[in-house]
Amino acid sequence: MENDLAAQGGVARALAYLHPLFMLASLALALLALRAGLALRRSRRSGARREGRVLARHLRLAKLAVTLLPIGFAAGIGSAVLLRGWDALGSAHGWISSATLSLFLAAAWLGRGLERRRPGAAPDPHALLALLAALCAAASLFTGFVLLP
Q: Given its phi and psi angles, is residue 10 left (phi above 0), alpha (psi -120 to 50 degrees) or beta?
């Protein structure tokens, strides 16, 4: 593509890799939060005492991931438009990433209700949305890999 600055090499090519690297780090944090969340779920379902350290780890990782993921999403749009000359959401990767971010944010919103002990807050919908977000993130990763310069 003639407007693809990243394909021409140099600084633009290096900048085009910042978004994927940032997102890999952000998704790694989200997966670590999911792992801690699944440990909490196992304890809850088995009737075991909930470990405060595991909950604190889950909250710390999840809050950081949910802060970084929208930043990375916006960086991806910026990279697509400014460096690659593409439409903002002109690929399957863009649409899958939009759905993924929506699922992560919805899981975070439900998790916030659990953290604040909001009446009616249930852990199962939170867990389901987080798992769906992780699965969508895998699809986003694969659809993004083919777009690398």
A: left
- CB of 17 within 8 A of CB of 96? no
Distance between CA atoms of residues 42 and 50, nearest Å: 10
| CA–CA dist 6, 87 (Å, integer) | 15
CB 121 within 8 A of CB 110: yes
**pTM of the prediction?**
0.90
Classify 148 as helix, strand or coil.
coil
Domain boundaries in the chain? Answer: 5-145
CATH architecture classification, 5-145: Up-down Bundle (1.20)
CA separation, residue 13 to residues 18, 24, 40, 72, 133 (Å): 9, 18, 42, 17, 29
**Residues of the chain under the 50 pLDDT cut:** 1
